[in-house]
Structures are given as structure tokens and as C-alpha cells.
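Hi Y.,

Following your request, here is the sequence exactly as I used it, all 542 residues.
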Amino acid sequence: MQARGYDYIIVGAGSAGCVLAGRLTEDGTKNVLLLEAGGRDNHPYIKVPLGLGKLHDNKMFDWGYDYEPEPNMGGRKIEAMRGKVLGGSSTINVMAYVRGNRGDFDRWERKGAKGWAYADVLPYFKRNETFAQGEDTWRGGSGPMGVIVGHAPDPLWDDWLDAAKDAGYAVNDDFNGKEQLGFSRSQYTIKNGHRCSAAAGFLRPAMGRANLTVETHAYATRVLLNGTRATGVEYEQGGEIKTAHADTEVILSGGAFNSPHLLMLSGIGPSEHLKEHGIKAVVDLPVGKNLQDHLAMWIMWARPQNTSPFRDLLRADRISAAFMQAYLLGTGPATIPPSGLAAFTRYNEELTAPEIQFLFRSAPGHPQMWFPGLRPAYDDAFGIRPVLLHPESRGEVLLRSANPRDHVRLVPHFFSAQSDIATLREGYRLGLDAVHQGPLDKYRGQRIDPKPETDSNADIEAWIRSKAITAHHPCATCPMGSGPEAVLDPELRVRGMQGLRVIDASAMPDLTSGNINAPVLMIAEKGADHVLGKRLPRAEAA
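Below is the corresponding structure, written out as C-alpha cells. Let me know if you'd prefer a different format.
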């Protein structure tokens, strides 16, 4: 079958791919093909923000990845959810919008990612969003992604803020603004009461453009090369092998697992590892190294019954009505997740960024619908989740075989650096201290997990090893920079190649201070300008 030609081919319609498709087709002069291995994003659970629980519990639109059994965590095999659908992980995530700390991006530049300091990236964060609270020096007011401040109707959240003050923390109006540290109301990618994924914000408005072609259920199998120049992509669709030609560039936006996978299948990666699988190296690069993810664990307490509006909402008749109201009108209690806060603390001068993020839960891990006489209401609970923001441990993405359909091996090496568990242990103690402030006395029942007798450093560390999971923020497997560890240059071009870029979470040099979807959207915004040879002015005043 003869290959069809395009100016650009984007592999992966996740957060980055949707941004790129939207931006590269704006002026109507470039023909773009967007390939997505998953399907359309038209399920009601996607549109309604409170549908995220069903998405996760049922593993819907998920690639089905797991980390390899980790010896430092009792041999546990930890799931690594990634979105397989238009919009990628922005279609199934918790919608948290956290840019990170300005020190993260200044650190990236110090490490060799020239042009990625905070002053360089702030204009792209602003271009990306419409912040419901209004535009200012730090926030955008006319971008495709709607961002709101969450106000879940639960008195717990106001009392949590009072507890934070009593524990000595600042209360911050906007952790994505001038200052990140402190306790703040959460922010979400929600617009008009519906999830605002990258597909909703960027791709859907572009779908009617004659110069954009979107192919779903299209599984990329290799990048086509002419020597060291990328010329197109081979992909499987409907049982047929197809090819597409790129006159200008191929852009990989498959994420921290799939982009290194496709590079290695195409002969771009660690030569000795490729040789093990019968693949000849075209360019020897440290593809798949430097894997990082945020580890975290929930500390949970019983919550007295009849104190939670969310528990009341989950009565079957009420949640059914609320879901329909949210789906049809974009109003009502199902338009906002029940988690209400985010917090950032323990500033590290060397990192110039916080070390711990706190996430919060006003309900147990898997609350279920209930109805009198049919199913009893669940035992209520609430919790705090310390997140290790900047692990020193590094994992790797490895080929399982040369068969494109075989998932890569994700070898995390979690806690291979002893400092990581020590920092997370301190985050645990800080979380306990915050929960035991007076304003939370009326909510705090018996500690459920870990058991009350878990108190010594050894006990806490053993519990962390047995309970920690990831916050689903994998990144940095094709890092940009200028040293030997870099796979990409600061323009996001694959080193030693022509006509090939990687623009997604794998391009991050290291983890940012918080959830990574907002930084990925920014990388794609800025990456689109790199592709087009444009640049926004630096935000010197910020």
C-alpha cells in the first residue's frame, strides 16, 4: 500500500499530542496526521468529573502497564495506569492542575535544558489556560484549557486549612501563582462543569480542519528511517500494516513508556540492549534510562458517620440524578471531585523546590453507591497522602522483545536510594502532625492504616515499603539537555537524528514539584513553537 504524505506525523494523541495537533494546524498551511492507539473519548464517565472513580476502578481506557516486581518493596508489582484514548492520561486522570515550582524549571536549565527556565516557560503556561479566577502576571485568561479552583462542599476542607495554620503552614490562595508553598484549594482542568482534557481543549476544536487527519486504533510499530533521517511511521490498524510519510518531521508523543519503546524498536537507543533483541542500533542513545515517578501512600482515619456530604451524595438515587445533571447541564455536585486541597512543604535549597506534596481524601479509597435496604452505606474515612516529589532513585524502560505488541518492561528501582524512604518517612510524620491539630478533632476517629502501634522509624519504613504506590507521574525517559545522559537537545530533537522529535513527559529532565499534566501541556505548547520556529518573549517581570 502506498504511503500517504503529510508535513508532520504525531504519534500519540495524549496530552502533548492533542496540543501539538491543535497548534500545528492553526494557520491551515501544514498537513498533520495524528495517530492514536486508543479510541474516541465519548464515554459519559469521561465527560462528568465525578466519573473518574469508575474509570479507575474498571481500568477503562488504560494501557494496562505494571511496574516489574520491586525487591525494595517486598517484590510488589505496582500498577502504572496510562490513558489509551484521545486525550491520553488527561482523559482519565484526576484533573489536578499543578504547574510545579519555578525552581524546577530553573533547575532544568542549569542541568543543560537551555531555554527552559521559569521565565521561558511561564508564557506558555499562561497561553495554555483560562483560569476561572482571572488573568494576572502568572495566570492565563484565554487559553484552551479551562482551570478552576475546587470547592467541594465539605466542611472538612475549611477545618483542614485551620489545622494547617495551627501546624505552622501558610495558606496559599494560588499554588500555581507567585508562590507554591503552603496549603491551598485544589485546581482542576474542568470547564463548564465538564472534564477539560487535552482532547476537549485542543483537539476537538481542530477536528474540523481540513489539514488535520486523526486515526484512532492506529498502533505505531516503528519510525521509518532513511539513514539517520525520520521519513515516516509504520502502524497497524484494523489488522492491516500501513505507512505514512512525513515531509518535515515525525513527532513522538506517546509518553514516558511508549515513546522510548517506539524509538528502541526503530533502532534508536542503547546499542547493547537493542542487540540483545536483534535490533541494529542506528544511533546509540540512553533511551529509557532515567525513569522517575512520584511515590506516595495514604494514611487513613475512620471518620464519624453523617459528617460527609460526599457519603450522602453516593446514595444511589442522589448520585444518579447528580450524574445526569452534570452530564446534561454541567451543573451540580458531580461536577467537582471530592478532594479539596493540595499542599507543598519542606523546601530544599539545593533543589530550589519543595520535597513533599500532600494530597487529601475525604472518603475511603473505593466508596460505593449505597441505598437503604439494598446496600448499607460504607464506613466513612478520610486521609492524607505524602508524595515524594524529587526521588533520587532512577528506573529504566527496557524492551521485552522486538515484537511491537509486547509491552516494555518497566524496572523502577524504587527506593534504591535510601534517602528517598527517609524523606518519605519525614513526610509521613509531618502528615500525622497536621492531622492531629485541634480543628480536625471532630473528624479524626481511629487510625485505620497504618495501625496505631506503627510508630518507630523501622515500623514506618516497613509500612511504606508495603503500601507505597505511584501517583501516576512517570517521566524523563528521553530527557532533554546537553550532556551525555540527554536523549534530546533543548529543541526536543532526538540527538544524532534529523526530522525526529519527542514532545511529551519523557522529555522532562526530572520530576516537577507536583502532578505532571500541566508541565506536559506546557512542554507541548513550547514544543509546537520550536517545531514552527517561533518563540514567545520571556516573562522577565515574573
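The chain has 14 helices and 24 strands.

Thanks again,
Q.
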